[in-house]
Amino acid sequence: MNKNSRRRFLRQTVTAATGLALAPGLVSCGAGNTATASSSAPARAPEKGRKLNVALLGLGSYAKGQIAPSLQFTRHCQLAGIITGSPEKIPEWQAKHDIPDENVYSYDNMDELADNPNIDVVYVITPTATHKEFAVRAAKAGKHVWCEKPMAMTVEDSQAIIDACNENNVRLSIGYRMLHEPNTQDFIALSKEKAFGAFTAATSLAGYAGSDPPTDYWRGQRAMGGGALYDMGVYTVNGLRYGLQMAPVAVVKAMQHRPTEVDVTTEYTLEFPGGLLAEGKTSVVTNYNQLRIEGENGWHEMQPMQPYGGVKGLTSAGTVLGPPIDGKQQTLQMDDDALAIMNNTPVLAPGEMGRDDIAVIRAIIESAETGKRVVL
Ligand code: NDP
Questions:
Q1: What range(s) does the GFO/IDH/MocA-like oxidoreductase domain occupy (predicted)?
Q2: pLDDT tier at 325 (50, 70, 90 boundaries)?
Q3: How far apart are alpha carbons 130 and 141 in whole angstroms?
Q4: 336 lines ligand 1 (CB under 6 A)
Q5: What's the whole-number mean pLDDT along residues 359-370?
Q6: pTM summary value
Q7: Would the CB of 127 count as within 6 Å of ligand 1?
């Protein structure tokens, strides 16, 4: 068994084992890298063997096309409720997913979730500018929060979500699906090992050949979190974080192309500790998809680095990270996050990670607008 397949075998074994080991007395705990049991929290862990009940908030294209179908394959959580501002969507969702009337909410009455013990998690899948309001309300209703990327518009909004989850003793995960993808995890392991010596450079590219987002849709609106940098650029920033296993210290320079109010392409240079420079590029009008880490003795890369399926990796030693895996990321993500809640263990994508990536996004925008280096 080679190292990679052994790592994957171990991961599956651990997942299977932990899935069976639910401690009935567990308490929920606040967000963050470290799982700390709260002294005051009520014991709200599910009964042994029970799946966590998830309510999806925002029934748009990602919820319908990826998350709901992925929930059909999860072992530790299930689709149990919906929260929507579009009443016309309700009959189809209820019929397709067998959702009872008492688990259907609107944005007006979602605070009543506090009285519903049959919902454990609210998964926020709405336009980025709305994440803060919905995530904070879900936390205040006592529900664990899964929040899509990018976490929020600002560091302050991100911190408000973290604080609300901590204050209400619920867990928080950001929907960084790549962190749950097995080939990406093998790539990260090479980064952690510094398999090719000290890092010397990095490149992170994520873009797709779409068209200018229409201005009457949130993806074309700056105030709603539209544009390439928030949407795709957050993958490049997060990729550099896990590829280099450290946080950037400054944005050296950045450039944004904004034909309307949002950027369709953004390029940036980040500086990491020790003076290491990383180049990032993101776009909603041009295809590219690569994360490459250069070391003193070679390199490792993923290309493509963030599609829903088919992530491929390669190293300068000829090692292929793979085979490419189709369509399991969101299932793995939600099962990992459910197990973290049930076993009171750290999540792979905590709120602090989401917040720190938003700090980088904001600094890239500031650098592009001022032409100056921005220290993080
Ligand atoms: P859509 O526009 O397709 O859907 C968003 C949904 O949010 C709407 O259908 C609506 O649902 C709800 N909503 C609530 N408030 C508003 C509002 N003010 N304006 C518009 N819609 C609103 O977006 P996506 O599903 O593509 O994206 C949603 C989130 O998921 C974003 O944060 C995005 O970044 C993230 N995403 C993540 C991906 C990933 O790979 N991790 C991939 C794609 C998206 P309803 O009608 O039910 O109220």
A1: 192-299
A2: confident
A3: 17
A4: no
A5: 98
A6: 0.90
A7: yes
Q: Looking at residue 30, what is its pLDDT?
A: 30
In this predicted structure, what is the pLDDT of residue 48? 61
Q: Provide the mean pLDDT of the chain.
A: 89
Structural contact between residues 212 and 263, judged by C-beta atoms closer than 8 angstroms: no
Question: pLDDT value at position 45?
Answer: 55
User: Backbone phi, then psi, for 27, in 5-degree steps?
Assistant: -105, 155
CATH number of domain containing 229: 3.30.360.10
> With a 6 A CB cut-off, is 128 part of the ligand 1 pocket?
yes
Residue where a domain terminates, one of 162, 177, 192? 177
State the average pLDDT over residues 190-194. 98
Q: Give the whole-angstrom CA distance, residue 151 versus residue 175.
A: 8
**Residue 169 CA to its chain's centroid (Å):** 21
Ligand 1 in contact with 276 (CB < 6 A)?
no
7 residue type, one letter: R
Residue 65 CA: nearest ligand 1 atom is 25
Nearest to 73, CA basis, from 42, 51, 41, 58: 51
